[in-house]
Design a protein that fits this description.
Helices cover 35% and strands 37% of the residues. With 142 residues, it is an alpha+beta fold. The N terminus is likely disordered.
Length: 142
Amino acid sequence: MDRAGQIADNPMIYSVLAAADQLIENIIAGTRDYIMKKNRPAIMLTCMCAKEDREKFLTLILKHTTTLGVREYNCKRYGLKREIKEIETIYGTVHVKAASGYGIVKEKPEYEDMARIAKEKNMSLSEVEKEIYKKLSENKAR
C-alpha cells in the first residue's frame, strides 16, 4: 500500500466502501465523523491502495459521492518480518504468528486455533489463551 486519499462526504460513503470492497482487492479504508467549514457534519473517508488501483479508486469515489475532489498522499509502510510457527501444547498443535525486527519480537497465537480448542475442550477462549501464552513464555525462557 503506497497511496492514501481522503475526502469529506455525507453518509453515502458507506455504499462506496461496499462497492470498493467488491471491485478492488487489498483495500484498506475507514471513516470518521468530521465537521467541515460552517459547522456542516460530514464523514471523512480514508483509503489506502496500491499505485495500480489509483484510477479505480478515484473513479469510484468521484462517481458515487458528492465530493468534488480527493486529496492524495504517498506513504511508505515499515513492518516487522513475519512468520508462522507451530508450537505443541497440552491441547495439540497451535499456530503462532511471530514478527521480529528493529530489536522487537512479538508472538501471537492464531485465533482460529484457540477458538477450535475452546470448542473441542468446552473451555472459554480466555482459558485456552492463558495456557497458550504460558507455553510461549516457557519457550522464551529456554
